[in-house]
Amino acid sequence: MTTTTARTTASTTATATRSQRQFAGWYPSMMERVERAGQSRIRHDQLAVASGRVLEIGAGNGFSLDHYPATVDDLVLVEPNPAFREQLRHRLAGLALPAEVRDGDAHDLAFPDASFDVVTASLLFCSVDDPARALAEVHRVLRPGGRFLFHEHVRGGPLRGALQDLVTPLQRRLADGCRANRRFEEHLHASPLEVASISHLRMPTWLPTIVPLVVGTAVRPGRTP
Ligand SMILES: C[S@@+](CC[C@H](N)C(=O)[O-])C[C@H]1O[C@@H](n2cnc3c(N)ncnc32)[C@H](O)[C@@H]1O
Fold it and tell me: Which of 134, 141, 172, 177 has the most CB atoms in a 10 Å sphere around its CB?
């Protein structure tokens, strides 16, 4: 990529809630170790085919930013947590990415229909209240033929699932709404997106409730007119 623009919207001055501040305080250092243990490779593979105009939803502090290829022309980062938006700004300052940071909500994306070639999300769908609605929004803002590149931690098998059910109320409080037991794959298959590929991997972490991962691509059916 050749541009060095890092734009942000005025809404970055909004105040974070206590839960958002706390999460933005510990998540980056906790995940830094996981990234070094192999999560960054998963991000790299997830994002390798991103190109054109790209939207990342729930960008957090920006762990994915290092992995966007030079085929990305324009990157919009939506993040509702003002503390994370601040961290994103700092991270972008050292990167040659044509990126823009915006406040926003996965349930109601402030973009016209069919306005992106690619939408990406990582470890987001555990946190949204209504995954079906958020996936419908991904479908709406993608152009026909556009790709949704995802990487999400999900509910595991019966034993782990039972543990995740048990821990989810606490995890939601500690991690700004994160549900350990989210059945993301079921929501994805029920959405208007077509699943093109899906791999079942393991997050390299000691925290057993967030180990099962799905990584893959879904497509908005149709062709660009
Ligand atoms: C576990 S963090 C993951 C952050 C980042 N995507 C990553 O891979 O490290 C979940 C992120 O989703 C964001 N989020 C939660 N609810 C959201 C919503 N309704 N719309 C958009 N983002 C949301 C949170 O603020 C947080 O940044």
Answer: 134
